[in-house]
Amino acid sequence: MYSQEFSELLARITVNPDVMVGKPVIRGMRITVEQILKALGGGVSASDLLEDYPELEHQDIQAAILYASERIENEKVYAVNG
Length: 82
Prior knowledge:
mainly alpha
């Protein structure tokens, strides 16, 4: 069960087939979770992201990271004999 804080963060992520082809986005905007994660993974700081996208809030970045962690939480990896 999620804490209230986690639930509030995850509520910032929306999915709508009419927005960005149904990819998870931040608060219905045209900024995808994928964009945020790729930027962070590419070395862009959270501060720079917030500066580049003034409509973003720090909690949106936290929400993107939490959303991604939730997606892979139960991921299983299987060995393939070759």
